[in-house]
Amino acid sequence: MKLTVQNKLSGLILFMMMLFCSNVSAQDFTATGTVVDSEKEPLIGASVSVVGGKVGAITDIDGNFTIQCKQGDMLEISYVGYNNRKVQAGKGLNIVMEQDAKTLDEVTVVGVG
User: Fold this and answer.
1) What is the pLDDT of residues 59-103, one digit of tens each?
2) Is the C or the N end of the chain the one with fewer CB within 10 Å?
3) DSSP readout, 5-24?
4) Quick check: helix, strand or coil at residue 94?
């Protein structure tokens, strides 16, 4: 009888260790970086989101962002008048956005008075 209890206890401990290991491998990661234009000027209010996820962030006045994601996730950066960029999440990213001339030609300003 004692052998059966030890087997069950060993099995339970092994199962709990496997659950713990899977949680460790899927821990959150904090990606940080700066979004700038081709002239190295910060882009204020650029959208940074995890591809296929629901998490997003906006760049601050210096173009900096911080976002929670998983290690190895892809981030998509978008800003009006610029081509979208996809980069792998990391720390200290420096993302240079390229202008989209086609988009700039399509912008229409409407005034309502």
Assistant:
1) 999 999 999 999 889 999 999 999 999 999 999 999 999 998 775
2) C
3) HHHHHHHHHHHHHHHHHHHH
4) strand
Q: Which fold has domain 28-101?
A: Immunoglobulin-like (2.60.40)
Helix residue ranges, H only, the chain = 2-25, 101-105
Residue 23 main-chain phi, psi, to 5 deg: -70, -35
Helix, strand or coil, per DSSP, at residue 64: strand
Domain regions of the chain by residue span: 28-101
Whether the Cβ atoms of residue 67 and residue 54 lie closer than 8 Å to each other: no
- pTM of the predicted structure, to 2 decimals: 0.68
Residue 33 contacts residue 65 (beta carbons within 8 Å): yes
Instruction: Tell me the C-alpha distance between 16 and 50, whole Å.
Output: 30
Per-residue DSSP letter, 51: T
* CB-count exposure of residue 100 (10 Å: 0-12, 13-18, 19+): middle
